Known about the structure:
Radius of gyration: 22 Å
Number of domains: 3
Number of strands: 18
Strand content: 15-25%
Structural class: alpha/beta
CATH superfamily of the largest domain: tm_1862 like domain
CATH architecture of the largest domain: Alpha-Beta Horseshoe
Shape: globular
Distance between the termini: 51 Å
Mean pLDDT: 94
Largest sheet: 6 strands, parallel
Helix content: 25-40%
Amino acid sequence: MTHSEKNIHIITLGCSKNLADSEKLHYQLTKAGYFVTHNQNIDKCDTVIINTCGFINDAKEESINTIIEAISLKAAGKINKIIVFGCLSERYMQELKAEIPEVNNWLGNYNPESLLRILGKSTLEKPEYGRHTDNPGHYAYLKIAEGCNRTCAFCAIPLIKGKFISQTKESIIEEANWLSQKGVKELILIAQDLSYYGRDIYKKAMLPKLVEELSKIEKIEWIRLHYLYPAMFPNNLIDVMAENKKICKYADIPFQHISDNMLKAMKRQHNKTSSMKLIEEFRNKIPNIALRTTLLTGFPGETDRDYEELLNFVRQVEFDRLGVFTYSHEENTYAGERLKDNIPQKIKEERAAYIMEIQEEISLKKNKEKIGKSIKVIVDNFNGEHYYGRTEFDSVEVDNDVIFTSETPMQPGNFINVKINEAGSFELFGKA
Length: 432
């Protein structure tokens, strides 16, 4: 094998679950003797491996455009081989093979054995969950399950990923221990649906027990929970979060909507009453909890009245963190097959934008309340003048930054108390 044949570049698109897969692939390829880069500008390499997303139309377009760009580099002699895997190719394998023959190999969902076999390697290196973190290394996404058993009308994930499959508690703890030995201080637990964890293999909700066990790992200081489905919510999880200092007072709960009319049409398994009860329980038991949610505008049949109810929900609850998506009509989903996409795109986008205007005001108000307070922050990076970090109430990339100065040199992964002296809508400013 020549040196050029050992150069591999990985491109990751989509969600944090894809990122976790690519980091594990990076580790396997490095252990196998390849020189690997990840999500950088491609100059010249033998092989490009693209980890695609096929969740909604925008993500599919980004994946296709990335593949086309790689083909252009291949035509220019800068790339010899293109391998594509992930959600897009799992969902549209045959169509893609027919339409884009320039790609050398198409694979479906992440399968490291198949990827290595294409490259001439036959076995996985130990540990199989080892990974090369491409962030500064002090936080890591920990995927505790694959797939989803929910039947939301708009969602293609069960079609792509299949039924919910929990990782065993022992394997998760083993991986977390390994990550802690590599310098990880913050574990970000991810799955399509954290709330469902354990129900398939243990026949009961095991997330509370899992996070208690993970919190015993000495070098792990923060454990963050993403994507907690609001139905079948694990009993006593809120109590565990309230009592355990290592579990961030942060919950990412994708409510999607609040109108019972819309929630029923979306085939969600919660309603307005149960949603409000869950929010109330969180805030009663953990007064300083940061609640994040995602909402969906423009679902088929969303009336002005449904939308007004959603606006009132946002104003009333005052979520600490909030994101909005516009509805995307997806093939083979319940809504895609049986409902008419009857809300114009312009109206979908206007509805989403107005919600974010309201949220920006809420976020600014909440951030101003922190002025004068000293808050524990994890350092993420340094730009030569300012440090960038996050509180326990903020996750990576999607939430607020704390931008601060420090007379004492800091390293990524350090924890420091920062006194807040200024606030923007989505940033806090201070001094350590």
